[in-house]
Amino acid sequence: MEHRIGQNSPPVHAAGTDPAYVPGLTPPRPAEAEKQPPVVADAPVAGASRTEREPEPKLEPKPEPQPDAAAEAAAEEPRPVADGPAFEASDRRGSVTVDGTGVTFRLDDETAEFGWPEIGAVELDTPRFGRRLTVTVYTTDRRSYDADIEAPNRGLPKQWAAELDAVLDAYFEDASN
Fold first, then answer.
1. Where is there biased composition of kind Basic and acidic residues (predicted)?
2. Structurally, how many domains does the chain consist of?
3. Which residues, at least 6 apart from 134, have a Cβ–Cβ distance to it below 8 Å?
């Protein structure tokens, strides 16, 4: 019988080491990467008179790169509203939106969108004596993502859960027909 010396553990997925890791989301690009290096004009030939030199091109400063206007517009524009029931709950940092397009989690400036074809199940959890609603989305590729929304009072999470359950029933019944 052979015994190996050392660790015998499988490699850990990034989500196990970084709690903020969500597949498909990319971090924002740093501002330094967007800036272009300055353009340097050729130096004049030494000993040549001004008339013998080639005319110097006038360098116009390039405008500063603006933040991606399309990304800002998409962030400010509301999602297209689909027909059917909808639910939205939010607190000071995040929100959960369920509508005809799927389920959307927002936390600070990050967004995770799940379309109905990729959602396998949605689970709700409300603690008995808490003010928090936890919504967990299980995708068809056996991954789960959750979002917590804190309510201003203890009765609101149960009300949110009832409203969200009615909306989810409508969409999951439509999918099974």
1. 50-65
2. 1
3. 124, 125, 126, 146, 147, 148, 149
